[in-house]
Fold each of these.
Amino acid sequence: MLIRRLIPVLVVSSLVSACGATYIEDSLVETSTSMVDTADETADVAPTFAEHLDIIDQSLNDLSDAIVENDGSADEILATILQSWETIEADIKTDFPDSHFGFYEVITLTELSVERRRPADASKAWKLFIDIAASIR
């Protein structure tokens, strides 16, 4: 019986004791205006068409070694390539329709090289990319 009476008393006393006043020293609190100003200054700028081509070029160059190392970085590199490709594909279709199929071959070969873990296919895709990209630069 004593335990049944003691439990509600403990619950109520713990709830009441948690309701104390809270005081925050104003001098210790940072203002958020400096953080907002910094965020405006460091806004990311989207890469240009030429920068996306450079990203794909460098990524394809690194892909063969990443496949050989088999440490998961090949999947990250592929994701970077596909993201840049997705961004510029419409521009290539519009501005360079004769080169679109060649770029499509590069992307397909790149995906297969990672999927099948074939570094030779990644190297082949990079060499093909160099030729196609040179024709539109």
Amino acid sequence: MTDFTRSFEIVIDASVHDVFEYCRDPRHLFAGWPELEVTDVAMTPEGVGTTAHIVGRFAKGMMVEQIEREFTEFVPDERIVSEAHARVRFAGRTKDVAHGPVFTWLFEATDGGTALTFVVLEEHLGWWQNLLESVSAAVMAKKMHGMLAAIKTGVEGRASSTA
């Protein structure tokens, strides 16, 4: 079994605090991935324990993921880590995912803005899952960049509307 990690970065023209506060809401984190629908968000004041239900529809609806994502680490203005508990339905079969991907958002000040790094960790992959991750990396990169671009647009749009 192996682990597979990908990371993506974007620079946002806003303070670390503003970017972090925007990202507290799971709806904002996944807005740039059109196949995902985020519902049933329950935010906690301390961040840890914030949850969201996410439904992902892929392959023209032939594959449906039901995901419960929870913030398991929350360090203000530095890091948000979330873990997934997922179930996948494909071709009439439903399967629990033993180790859902761990998502980490890292926030760092840079030249008057914020470098937001998004890290995806897939743990304990079998050889065939590792191969699948390698093959799908380009498609997933596009989705991850879309998520980051939506966060950038949301944060910078919010800042310009209050100016």
Amino acid sequence: MTIVWDQLIVENILLAGIIVGSIYLEQWGHRRSQISEEKESRRRIIMYLADDLQKRLNFIDETHQYSDYKPFFTDMWDAIILAGKHALLRFELFQSLQRTYSWMKYYNSELDGNSGKALDEKVQDLLEDVRKSINRSLNKLNETEEIKNSLEDRKIGQTTINVTSSNIAKRIINQVKQEFEV
């Protein structure tokens, strides 16, 4: 029995090509499904965060309306961080959101520090800083492509200004001046 080397080499090359091609196709399909899952997760996280921040703005308005200062709950943001899902967000967006939730936590700690005492101007100013930070984060979220695709014509987090005292009015005027300077 003689071995036909040409035929054996061609068959082995074809077999190797089929094996490599099937591995490549499997890897390509797996990567495509991962990208699709990440995109859907990113869209859901952004939608959740936009809704959460909008509710925080409403909470601030109610706080001013009823002069009932309560802490913010940031447990869902903490869950996003602990799950590692923050890596799906653009860095600038993550940075803005992290600052916003840090402002909320700082407000909570100041509120805890003043428990039992009359609220001072610092806590009220801090609440306005939280509002500004939320508005900046909502503006960043509005710039996000997933939000534009999901909501098309609806903007998230329209800036609402509730003037309850002359002090707040002064801060609003200063904020408008700062925005025009930028």
Amino acid sequence: MGQRSRHKSGVASFLEYYNDLLRWEGHDPFDLVHEWPAELVERVKADFEQAHVSSGLRGARCSLIPGSTNQSIGNQVEVFTVPRLAQFLKEFQIEKCSGAGYPDRELTQNVSRLGIALEMKATSQWNPADSNRRVLTSSSDKIRNHFRPPIYHLHCTVMYDISDSDDARINALRLDFLQPTTTVNVRLEASVNHKILSSGKHPTVTLR
């Protein structure tokens, strides 16, 4: 992100974002995202490909709760997909990554016990021109406390269609192996809570 743009909304590499985030949080920067070895990429791809076929995931129908919002549909599709896919993985396993924040899940290699940060998303279509935000992370806590270098990040998108019966029909999986150089959008955000507002040294009035 560079010294001039640090701590402002903009565009950075994934590694630059994490380094600036660590400084924001009062930590010395160290690498929280590493470059994927080509061999590991191929092993993950191969295991997901065979699990995708063996599970019969393509074309599978996920029953939806009537009146679900788009966000709820995405969550239901994700809950439907993960255990079905995980059941047929051979070299890796998908586990919940406990605690709040990114990532929701961890992909663990059975032999080496290597833990990979895995984020699952679901979308009704894949549009290369779509600029809607998909938030990855806003804190380094979980990555710092749960993973040890080298740290690899995998983004898995489940794609689905809504069928005539209003069920979600799974049609594809997309794997993005995020690299230190992967471009991310950075948005600086601020928030308050009741405690901060109550103790703040600013004028306030409550009208009843």
